[in-house]
Amino acid sequence: MVKIGIVSNLYKDPTGEYTDKVLKGMIKRNMQPLVTSSVYKQLKQGTLLREKEIYQLSDLILVLGGDGTILQTSRSAAKFNKPLLGINLGRLGFLAEAEMSDLEHILDTLASSSYQIEHRMMLEARLIRNNQLIKQFLALNDVAVAKGSFARIIHLNVRIDGEFVNHYAADGLLVSSPTGSTAYSLSAGGPVIYPGMECLLMTPICPHTMTSRPIVTNADSIIEIGVIDRNREIQVTIDGQQVKSLQEGDHITISKSPLKTQLIRLSGYGFFNLLRNKLSARNE
């Protein structure tokens, strides 16, 4: 019996209608859904487990929500080496593989294990303060060092593999994986990078000079961002979800993580088809 962990964003599915359809369809196909207490309390279906147990015991993770839910799930799934598939309940859904209208096809494909797995590079970020490691982060999309609520620009120094690159006066700097190139980086003017590639993309956010351009470097490189400003509200943000305040003299190093996100891909869904459809939806 295939065991599938269910991660459902009940804020996007407040009545549980979509989650209920998924659970009933899985049980009908003799698959075992593993669910958290929030899902079980609302729907009284599936095998109730703690969140950590779901990642430990499942064969794969099925995510119902938007890109934010998939990003959050990807960091946990990668630590347990579990593949995931996203069903979009949000708006744009670049990371989601399919829509609820595809549910029958999705479940048939999972039941027969006739899918492919795409491995996505992840980022590892380290906060260094006074030569001490303060915190370590894992990201699928991006790591941003940027200003908080105040209006003035901030000043950052950047080194790549120990070589000084530039002094940046901007709203911030964004280091993205190829997967993250279609997220915040795209809005900041960065290029779209094919997700199967492995590289680091650094994009200035609203730079004060027109000569500040995105930089693509080797996946084995280490990008180091140093905070110059004093008494400014500056933060490091991981996938737009985890936030840590920074101080003058702090350094953020970003490199390729040894962990990978495994995304389940269904036949007939290509990256450029997805890109064309999602960018068209964004412009509508």
Structural summary, described in words:
- The chain is 23% helix and 40% strand.
- It has 284 residues and is of the alpha/beta class.
- The protein folds into two domains: 3-115 and 266-283, Probable inorganic polyphosphate/atp-NAD kinase, domain 1 (Rossmann fold), CATH 3.40.50.10330; 122-258, Sandwich (Tumour Suppressor Smad4).
- It has a six-stranded parallel beta sheet with strand order 3-2-1-4-5-6, with helices on both faces. Strands 8-7-18-15-10-11 form a six-stranded antiparallel beta sheet. Strands 14-13-12-9-16-17 form a six-stranded antiparallel beta sheet, with no helix packed on it.
- The longest helix is centred in the N-terminal third of the chain and has 13 residues, at 67-79.
- 40% of the residues are buried.
- The mean pLDDT is 92.
Short account of what is shown:
The protein is α/β, with parallel strands linked by helices and 284 residues long. The protein has helices at residues 17-28, 37-43, 51-57, 67-79, 103-112, 184-187, 271-283, and strands spanning 3-8, 32-35, 47-48, 60-65, 84-88, 98-99, 116-129, 132-139, 142-147, 154-160, 163-170, 172-176, 199-205, 215-218, 223-227, 234-238, 242-246, 251-265.
Label the structural class: alpha/beta
Residue ranges: pLDDT <50 for 5 or more in a row? none
CATH topology term of the largest domain: Tumour Suppressor Smad4
Strand residue content: 35-45%
String of helices and strands = EHEHEHEHEEHEEEEEEHEEEEEEH
Mean pLDDT over the residues: 92
Across the major sheet, the strand order is: 3-2-1-4-5-6
Q: How many domains is the backbone divided into?
A: 2
CATH class of the largest domain: Mainly Beta
Alpha-carbon distance between the two ends: 43 Å
Helix content: 10-25%
Radius of gyration based on Cα positions: 20 Å
